[in-house]
Write a structure and sequence with these properties.
The protein has one domain. The chain is globular. The protein is built from four helices and no strands. By secondary structure, the protein is mainly alpha-helical.
Length: 91
């Protein structure tokens, strides 16, 4: 698998972020984490390649464990995202 250039990585992640709403506020934590972890998963220094769905699931698990700026640890908030899109990205 070829390693994408930075511009291509940013475009890809921005398109994926269109499928994660930015409101209400806890969604902002998810989007920030997703940007960071997804860019890292696509980069040349990534130790393990992960698809979009895996990165999203890792971000949600991390937020539930540690909390975020808006998402409070232990909250019962259910994160929103386009399940169909990320199901396709699983492959």
């Amino acid at each position: 698998m070829a390693i994408p250039k930075l511009r291509q990585m940013r475009e890809k992640v921005l398109k994926e972020l269109e499928h994660i709403p930015d409101w209400p506020k806890p969604q902002k934590d998810l989007r920030m984490g997703y940007w960071f972890f997804r860019m890292h998963s696509l980069g040349k220094k990534a130790k393990i390649r992960k698809n979009a769905k895996e990165v999203l699931e890792d971000c949600i698990a991390d937020l539930k464990k540690k909390g975020g700026v808006y998402y409070k640890k232990g909250s019962d908030y259910e994160f929103l995202y386009d399940k169909e899109f990320f199901k396709k990205e699983e492959n």
